[in-house]
Amino acid sequence: RYYLISSFLMLFLTAAAFYLLIRLMKNQQLYAQAKLTFTSNMTHELQTPISTISVALESIKKYHLIDQPEKLENYINISVHELQRLQSMIEKVLKQEQMDLGETQLQLSLIDVQPILQQVISAMDVQVKAKNASLVFLPSDEPLFIKGDAMHISNVFYNLIDNALKYSPARAKIEVSFSIADRQLTISFKDNGPGINEIYLQQVFERFFRIFNQDNIHNVKGSGLGLHYVKQVITLHGGRVDLHSKAGKGCNFMVILPLYEEN
Ligand code: ADP
Predict the structure, then answer these.
(1) In sequence order, what are the beta bridge partners of 117?
(2) Rounded (5°) CA angle 185-189-194
(3) Is the pLDDT of residue 77 over 70?
(4) Does the C-beta of 111 come closer than 6 Å to ligand 1?
(5) How high is the pLDDT of residue 44?
(6) In this structure, are residues 187 and 131 in contact, taking their beta carbons and an 8 Å threshold?
(7) Coil, helix or strand at residue 252
(8) Which of 127, 165, 176, 196 to mutate to test the pocket of ligand 1 (most atoms within 8 A of CB)?
């Protein structure tokens, strides 16, 4: 009997080990696949500004634009703009790398979330108008203080509103609102875009993850790093990010942060 139990146990353990090994391999395979896609997306995205700059410079040379100040200025402006874009893409990848290595130190101070959010919203006004979208902000009457890193928190807001705009069709309606319960602040970013299929609700926060089989979405460029960054920053602040969504039903990203309490 002892022999039977121990052989059964051995069999069970071997099967469990085998199962875990296969899962690990599958995860690594998925990760390698995601990383490969990321590299090819990124290469593609880096190539666009580089070729624009090189066409601009070649045209200056070929058509002697040095003698035509107006055209020259136009080509220089285009090049400077594309260089800035390149720089910000590279910074984004480097920042993410630092964060993944645990090298990011938050610069914590007492911050009021509301003016930070308002600043991000005004900075995005041009993008909102360009898409004929409407961004409704429902302010709170009281100050909303947290212990946080203003720069990272502002990036989080930017990423979530940017996604809502990017993935929604024209005339999107985005709503940003606050609520407070049990000394926790919830900032909700709601859109009426294509939404996310329930099976991806966790995965969208993984590094490099993008949904490929959702019709209109992936003509949109991206790196699959935005939501991973959002989750990391909010977790480092002692909070969490919840996502409610269904395919075709829009998204509601909820950033939940502990409110500052005076002792
Ligand atoms: P990126 O936008 O660079 O692809 P993110 O990490 O910000 O990377 O988002 C991961 C994926 O989640 C996106 O590729 C997209 O498929 C999906 N997603 C994110 N935000 C939204 C949204 N508001 N509506 C629909 N899909 C979204």
Answers:
(1) none
(2) 150
(3) yes
(4) no
(5) 67
(6) no
(7) strand
(8) 196
To test ligand 1's pocket by mutation, which of 166, 173, 204 has the most ligand atoms within 8 angstroms of CB? 204
> What's the rounded Cα separation, in Å, for the pair 197 and 211?
9
CB atoms inside a 10 Å sphere around CB 109: 10
Q: Does ipTM surpass 0.95 in this model?
A: yes
Q: What is the pLDDT of residues 9-37, one digit of tens each?
A: 778 778 887 787 787 777 777 777 767 76
Task: Name the region of 31 (left: φ>0; alpha: ψ -120 to 50; beta: rest).
Answer: alpha
- Crossing angle of helices 69-100 and 2-62, rounded to 10°: 160
Do residues 47 and 85 lie in contact, with contact meaning Cβ atoms separated by under 8 Å? no
**Ligand 1 closest atom vs CA 227:** 6
Q: Is the CB of 251 under 6 A from ligand 1?
A: yes
Least confident of 16-20, 145-149, 183-187: 16-20
Is the CB–ligand 1 distance for residue 223 below 6 Å?
A: yes
Kindly state if the Cβ of 208 falls inside 6 Å of ligand 1.
Answer: no
Nearest to 220 by CA among 261, 170, 151: 170
Residue 207 reports pLDDT greater than 90: no
Q: Are 77 and 207 in contact (CB under 8 A)?
A: no
